[in-house]
Amino acid sequence: MFEIIEVSKHYDGLCAVNKVSFQIHDKERVSIQGESGCGKSTLLRMIAGLLVQDEGEIRRDGEILPKDPHLRGVSMVFQDSLLWNHMTVQENILFGSGKKSRAERTEQAEELAETFGIKELLKRYPNQVSGGQARRAAIARALACEKDLLLLDEPFSNLDPDWKERTMEGVRLKCAGKCAILLVTHNRNEAEKLCNTHYRMEEGRLIL
Amino acid sequence: MIWQKFTKLTIWKNSNWPGLILYLLLAFVPVLYLSATGGKDHLPVFCDFSERRAGLLYHSVIIAFFTAVCCVSVGLFAAVKLHSKKRGNTLGRWFFLLTAPVPSYIYALTYMNLVRMMGRFIPSLLRYRMAGIWPCVIVEGFAFLPYACAAAMISLEQVDAGEWKAALLCRSADRVYWRIVFPKQLPYLMAIGAVIFVLSITDYTIPSLFQVNVYAMEIFSDYSAVGRSAHSLELSVPLLFVSAAVILMGILPLRNVVKPMKDDEEVIPQYSRLMNVAGSGAVLVAVLQIILPVFSLIPYVGSLSGSYVSAGEELWNSGITGLGAVAFVMIPSAMMALQLAEQKTMKPVWLGIAIAPLSIPGVLTGIGVLKFFSDTPLHVLRSGNIMPSIGMAIRYLPFAMLIQYGCYLRMDRNRIDAARLLQPGRGQAFWRVKVFMMMPGMAIAGLVVFLLTLGDVGTALMLMPAGKEPLSVKIYNYLHYGASETVAVFCLMQMAVCLAAVGVLYFGTWIWQKIHKR
Fold it and tell me: B187 and B249 in contact (C-beta within 8 Å)?
């Protein structure tokens, strides 16, 4: 279980996140909805360890999470796809997958690519795929890490309606019984389809 | 208490700090060592600042000021003109960079040949135009013009295309340029102006060719005559003061303006006739900057293979020293640049400290390194190419750092954050992602250091061991004797090596892009 306890973040005197507290149980699917600029992404980056909170604690099973992001048991899909241009789509997907044999890793990449409809693109480079395909590759990359909590920062925002549905289904399928989800979005439909616990964020505060 | 505060500084929390310390040690070692070993046998700093020396400083400042102003003005208008053309051949817009690697004494030779040629028809030209401040300004202006043009072009490409287009809907292109675009360009122009000013004020080779005494020459001749290194340091204080002030004022405003690259959106403003004429004039100067040296050297191409025998060893020394300098400069400059790019607190202070060594004249760097090597067990390395390589690395370390710093600021931090989070083990984000993102900056910095080392005379004269003369020094000596045909061939060799180095980088980039199908 991940516990976010009284977490705050300030930028130049402005409070981006204000004493936010909530819990994410194992394999739970949580959404946080809110307008742009209400502090959702900042909160996600703090949970990922990419930003340090000014106040409060983030714990996992009672223990404070380590500072190093990759040791926190969390993976993330960012607002932009952020694929690395010097790696193929397959190399991008497998970047974070743990100690496995070459065959297992290839199998994992192909399976994820199949789920998200990018199997033919595995050997291509990020600038040879469309924005939507890159976004699906980024989701596959985050899932390949097999961490306990998947953070999703507006992950479906530039997908066409058909692929949005299929990608959400893919995420639900891949996470089922394996990892928890924290989805941040301003789209109510996405939140309701993917998650079962919902919060709302306004001006840095979390409202149930 | 103070120690506790010192250890709590954010800078030590970053893994780049060993590189940062190495950078500071290397960059300041000549000056620090000269200060530490000065003793008490010399006069206090400003006692030696006679009226004659004030005059020399005045000459230096005048040459550097007008060189910087001319370069920035021509570069600005040339960039405006080139930028206002529809983009067909992107590479063609950067044609003025073709002779960027050409050292300034090649322009000096071109200028001398040109004046001699014209002097046949107008004899008074020979009397008035072969010596003095203005030939220095013209020659150095031509030599540094590509850098000014490049900085102006880069600054134009940093302006948000959407913002520019929105303004063009309301006002004329000229007004939009001066009110919206120019203020955004200004920090870049100031920075390149400051760098050109310092390169010019710390150089004595071109002024000495045109019989102008400058302050940097005074430091060199004082050391050659007296041999007291600490006195040379004291003598250079006024020059250090002027160039450090210009560098800090010119470069510090740059720290907040560099943004990640935007999408390639095109803006084609329709400027007034006056702006177009000014732009065309500036482009013509940029074209002349290429045509003149090329045409003045072309007649000597045939003698190139024969001359390799007489200057092959010098060319080899230049190349080896250049490569050595690149090897020594890379790690400390890269780590310092990374540290600065990631620094959150006291950034202007750290940036100021990092760029301050830019103001140290090459001759002082040479004296400091020479003394350090002579006084320590490192003296065993004095006879080879290692000492000149380290000297050149120290001289051009801040240039390499500044180039990489600019490139790192343009890196997408979110991509690095993604790698930090998703990496399966410690260090993978650095080796598998960050290093690849740093490569363009490192490659450009390496090339620039190599080219600057190849063209350097001021530091090389102090550091070259007997029998290890680089080609630049040979050319400089021959220029003094007036052997223009031999010099032309040597210059051609130098130019060929410089262009070959650029070619290697270009070819390497092409291969890299082919491999990664980008």
Answer: no
Q: Is the dihedral of CA B457, B462, B464, B467 positive or negative?
A: positive
What is the DSSP secondary structure assignment for residue B261, as one 8-state letter?
Answer: P
Smallest Cα distance from B187 to chain A, Å: 24
Q: What are phi and psi of A195, to 5 degrees?
A: -120, 165
For the record, the structure tokens of B407 come out as 């490139």
Give phi and psi for B4, each to the nearest 5.
Answer: -60, -45
Q: Which helix (H) or strand (E) holds B509?
A: helix B484-515
Select the residue of B414, B425, B428 nearest A82 (Cβ to Cβ): B414
pTM: 0.81
**Dist CA B279 CA B212 (whole Å):** 32
CA distances from A105 to A102, A121, A189, B418 (A): 5, 16, 34, 20
pLDDT tens-digit map of B63-87: 999 999 999 999 999 999 888 876 6
Question: Nearest 10 degrees: CA dihedral of B269, B271, B277, B279?
Answer: -40
CA-closest candidate to residue A78, choices A172, A157, A6: A157
What DSSP string runs through B91-106?
Answer: GGGGGGGGGTTS-HHH
Query: How far, in Å, CA of B213 to CA of A111, rounded?
Result: 74
The DSSP annotation for B397-435 comes to HHHHHHHHHHHHHTS-HHHHHHHHHH-SSTTHHIIIIIH
Give residue B228's Cα distance to chain centre: 29
Residue B469's domain spans which residues?
Answer: 13-515
Task: From chain A, pick out residues whose CB is under 8 angstroms from the CB of B418.
Answer: 76, 78, 82
Helices B362-375 and B17-36, packing angle to 10 deg = 80
Q: Rounded distance, CA B461 to CA B470, Å?
A: 9
Write the single-letter amino acid at A34: G
Residue B309 lies in a domain: yes
- Model pLDDT for residues A152-175, shown as the tens digit of each residue: 999 998 788 889 999 999 999 888
Residue A179: both structure tokens together: 């990892």
Q: Is residue B358 a contact partner of residue B195, using CB atoms and an 8 Å limit?
A: yes
Note the pLDDT of residue B300.
72
- A171: closest CA among A193, A204, A198? A193
Nearest CB neighbour to A82, from listed B415, B432, B516: B415
How far does A166 lie from chain B, in Å, by closest CA?
24
- What is the set of domains in chain A, with CATH numbers? 2-73+147-207 (3.40.50.300), 88-145 (no CATH)
Overall domain count for chain B: 1
Contacts of A85 in chain B (CB under 8 A): 516, 518
pLDDT of residue B305: 67
